[in-house]
Amino acid sequence: MYKGKARAYTNIALIKYWGKKDEALILPMNNSLSLTLDAFYTETSITFAEDFAEDRFFLDGIEQSAAATKKISAFLDMIRSEADCPLYASIDSRNFVPTAAGLASSASGLAALAGACNEALNMQLSVEELSRLARKGSGSACRSIYGGFAEWQQGTDDTSYALQVASDDWENDLSMIFILINDQEKEVSSRDGMRRTVETSSFYDGWLTAAAKDLVTIKQAIADKDFAALGAVTEANALKMHGTTLAAQPPFTYWSPESLRAMDCVRHIRQQGLPCYFTMDAGPNVKVLCQKRDEQAILDALQANFTPEQLVLAHAGSGLTALPLENDVPKMSK
Ligand code: 2P0
Predict the structure, then answer these.
(1) For the segment 125-160, what is each residue's pLDDT rounded down to a tens digit?
(2) How many CB atoms sit inside 10 A of residue 30's CB?
(3) In the CATH hierarchy, which top-level class contains the domain 2-168?
(4) Which of 29, 234, 236, 292 could join 14 via S-S bond, C-beta 3.0 to 4.6 A?
């Protein structure tokens, strides 16, 4: 029996990953850049054992469906082959989220699973190798290997992984406030949404051109520690990503009326002189990027429009961490 445990924090892309050039390998159409956050994380333990007859996957203590387990098994098959381990596994994954707001993240989940396997099977992977492995489970997971800012470089199967973006710890001056809009299951999953957009959106070429330019702009903003430039390009990039969905066939959007209200609110607060900028992912929640020194004033302003339960404050989080095991179970020997 081999056992390992790891924790990974979720990340929010400031320059979005939106579209795959290879669905099976999870290779993206564009580079993306994210900030890892401390508010949401996943802890996963995995046990590989001789007497297991199949893989079993428990999320927050509840055994998951055959379909969900199959996805995890496909990921584990790749690891079993790389680590030369034929054993089935039991996975116990716990999502730590402040409310039941539908924010469980495949990024933290797959990064934590990659980390737990690395521990259990004593794979001794470098951070780049861990990032590459996590990518094959879920694209955005490759960025959660790192704390702070990370850039996922498109690459090929061997070279597509994230790297740390040096920032001289500037991320510790930043905050992100989540405005939780609803916890409904989304109508179009990010996987389906990306595919439909790549295949049918007449705005997609424009997205690719813009994302490449936005990446250059944001890296300069990080190097200069220029918050206004960072925020402006973050907000503009999210709007461009969401623009592509309106030109897809059939068209769709992740925005709800409440999302629009939140975006207006952020613009209004900014016009009042408090620098803050929004971003959105494949769902209706709005995330507000600001500087730590302004976070309380911005929270106060948001509280005029949203309930305290809807607002969750986050700061920069750390990278993938191996966790000690509860009892003394050996790792696989190298
Ligand atoms: C991102 N999103 O960069 C973008 C922005 C959603 C919008 O990465 O298919 O769960 O597993 O690679 O990583 C969400 O997609 O998708 C995502 P898969 P993933 O954060």
Answers:
(1) 999 999 999 999 999 999 999 999 999 999 999 999
(2) 21
(3) alpha beta
(4) 234
* First and final C-alpha spacing in the chain: 14
- Parse the chain into domains and list their residue ranges: 2-168, 175-315
Task: Indicate the pLDDT class of residue 99, thresholds 50, 70 and 90.
Answer: low
Say yes or no: CB of residue 16 within 6 Å of ligand 1: yes
Q: For 279-310, b where at least 16 C-beta lie within 10 A, e where not — what string?
A: bbbbbbbbbbbbbeebbeebbebbeebbeeeb
Instruction: Report whether residue 190 contacts ligand 1, using a CB cutoff of 6 Å.
Output: yes
DSSP characters over 304-322: TTS-GGGEEEEEB----EE
Which of ligand 1's atoms lies nearest the C-alpha of 135? 12
**Helix 190-200 / helix 227-246 crossing angle, nearest 10 deg:** 70
Angstrom distance (rounded) from CA 201 to CA 237? 17
What's the half-sphere exposure (Cβ side, CA atoms, 13 Å) at 245?
20
The token pair that represents 15 in the structure block:
């320059």
Q: Which two tokens stand for residue 2?
A: 């081999």
Say what the pTM is.
0.95
Backbone angles phi, psi at 56, to 5 degrees: -130, 140
